[in-house]
Each structure stands twice: as C-alpha cells, then as structure tokens.
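Is iron/sulfur cluster placement plausible here? Inputs below.
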Amino acid sequence: MTRSVSFHTLGCRLNQAETAAITRSFEGRDFDVVATDTDADIVVVNTCTVTENGDADTRRLVNRINRRNPGARIALIGCQAQVQAATLRQMPNVSWVVGNARKMALADIVESAAAADRPFVDTSEIPTESFTSPTAAVDYRHARANLKIQDGCDFYCFFCVIPYTRGHARSRQFDDLLREAADLVEAGHREIVLTGVNIGTYEDGSKAFLDVVDALIAQPGLDRLRISSIEPTTIPAGLFGPMAAGTALCRHLHIPLQSGSDEVLYQMNRRYSISQYREFVELACQSVPDLCLGTDVIVGYPGESDAHFDQTVELLRHLPLTYFHVFSYSERQRAKSRLFADQVERPTIAARSRVLRELSNRKRQLFLERFSGREVTVLFEQEKRERWTGLTDNYIRVSVASERDLTNRLLPVRLEGSDDGSCMTGVLL
Ligand code: SF4
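Reply from A.M.:
I modeled the complex. Tokens:
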C-alpha cells in the first residue's frame, strides 16, 4: 500500500541538504512524497539540538502534527535523535527515532520496520571514515541547492554539542561531491551552497577545501558557488582571488566570531584571538570589493561580564561586518560550559541580545545604502505579493515588480533603496 510522507527541517543548512537528499531517496518506492503542509501518513522531522530553542521547536512541531493529523506516524531523525532518543521516543505517535549515523537510510528503515507499538530506535555510533551520498539533494522548492561536503567536528568548543551529535570530522569523497554537483546543475540549480559542520577542515586524500572550490567554480553550467558558515583559522586566503575576479564564487563569507573578548574566547575553547580575527576580516574586505561578511555571536556565555560584552559591542561596531546572527547562550548536555559557574541571568541575556540585534540591523542598513543606484545581477527565487525576490552574489535580497515568471532567472537590476533594512527594491534592466 502506498503511504504518503512529508518532511520538516529544523535547524541549519546542513539539515536542509540532508532532508532534501532523504526526500529524494523516498521517491521511486512505495511512498508518495507530499508537501510539508499536507497531512501525511508518515511525517519526518529532521531535528536540531544546537540550542534549547531547537529542542523546544521539536516539541512544538510534534504537538502541532498530532493536533492536525492524529493518525500520522512520526519519524524524528538527526541531531536531537542522536543524543536524546530516550526523551523523543516517549512523544505521542513517534514510531521511529533515528540518529545521524543511519538517518540517510531512513527510507530503507521505514520500509522494513513498520510502525509498531514501540518506537524503532537507532542511535548507532557515527562512523569516522570519509563518506559518499548517493542521492543528490535536488530541492525543487528553491533555486539554490545545498551540497554537503563534510560532517562532524573535532574542535570541541566548550558551548557546543555538535561533536557529540555528529561525531568526528569527516569529509565527503571528492569525486562523489563532484558527481552530485553535476547532478544538481543538471536538475536546474544555478547556485550551490557548500555545507557541512566545519567545511574549512575538508580533507579527502590530497584534496583540501580550496580544491573543492576550484573544481566547482569550473563546473559547466554552475553560475554561483556560495560558501556557508566557515570557521576562522580554516579559511584559505586563496579564496579571495576567485571571489574578487568575478568567478562563480560568491562574494559572501559567514565567519563565526562568538565573542569580542579574548578572555571569553579562551573560556569557549575557540582557536583564535580577537586580533587574528580582525586582521583576517580586514584583509578579506580589502581583497574582495563589496564583500558581504556575516558572523555569529553568542551572548550570555558563562562568565561574560558587562565589560566583556562592551568589548563585543565595540568590536562589532568597528569591524567591516554586514550582519550578525545573535544566539542566546543555553546549556547543552555534554557541552563542557554547562559545568561553569557564573551563568548569566536570563534578563541580562535578553537585553544584550537586543543591543546586538539593533546594531546588526543598523550595519545591514548601512551596507545596503552603499548599493543604491548601482547595477547588480540577481538570481530570482520566488514571487510574493506581486514582487519577485532573489539574491545578489553578495547576499543582498532584492525585490522587483514583474508580471513575468522570473523563477531561477539571473537578471540585471538597478537598485533603488531599502524600505525595511533587509531587502532592496530595484527595477529590471
Ligand atoms: S567549530 Fe566549535 S562551534 Fe563549530 S561545530 Fe565545531 S565545536 Fe561546534
């Protein structure tokens, strides 16, 4: 009997890449893949546990699925499943809990382990070898496709649970990722975003991260290659040349800072100093005109005093960053920082987050203003309220009026201005 199956993704871009590949692996079998908001016989949730919000999102989503569609059998997979299987298996109508080691084989598991009274649980140990991924992560809903090149991490930052949820750093076999990139282009994707946990540590035999980039920007038919988040200290300066030269490599970097205080960075077990970070960011901006530079910051890390936070604000104010993602610190099981004294009060964390979010909004607005009146190229993705939106290579969201279908079109636009600080309006040329 054919069963319908829908997919939800919580968390990061890597989860999105994996959900897309898992979705494709259900096709061509006795399953009918349906849209996320359609009531399905089986609902798959690719979970996140990087913050306590990720855990809460799973709870909320499972409750919502059970309210809307009480007959559904639920599969909880991924990071939270790997480390919190005992909790997840108690949730109503959960029939499968599958961690990161085996989640890519979910279609086989669901086929062979039918929903029973007791949930099927698999939290096998995560392998350490290089890997392949046989199913291309074609994403029919988005112009951009995510390409997973790496998994796991050996850095063990003290706040982070990821080395426990995703295991040791391991890389995808070079030929295998090139094959998927060709498949994604063949399926119509014009932009590929490289994803992984710590992609700058990519290593497969003699191939390193820069080899991946060089090979992909030479991929026929690929218009854009974007690098997602990449750790400071792992970024080869050899990226700047192709970015500045107008190749397919997008002028966009997202480099997590986490704190503007050397003392806090040390307490986080981060691997760089503020001066190293500053020098690198300044070199990047000098080398690549109009580079968009984003970062992540954690507020309220144990021991973060007002003085530490002020240092973070000052640094962020002066660095040539375009935007920051602000995360409120939350204790993660197994992460070392949960043992630290000096936990910061919740209201203080909320107030600090507000300060940084406002600063980020102002910096983004200033970045956008620089482009008023300039001509850019936009890869259009979708239509909303009679406006088409898409991105420039340097991550400016642009909206234009058009009666034509612009899906997946790469078109020149003259930028006008920004009404809300997050998107620029423009006219098609
Ligand atoms: S580099 Fe640090 S923050 Fe990033 S995944 Fe590894 S341990 Fe976590």
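Short version: The mean pLDDT is 94.
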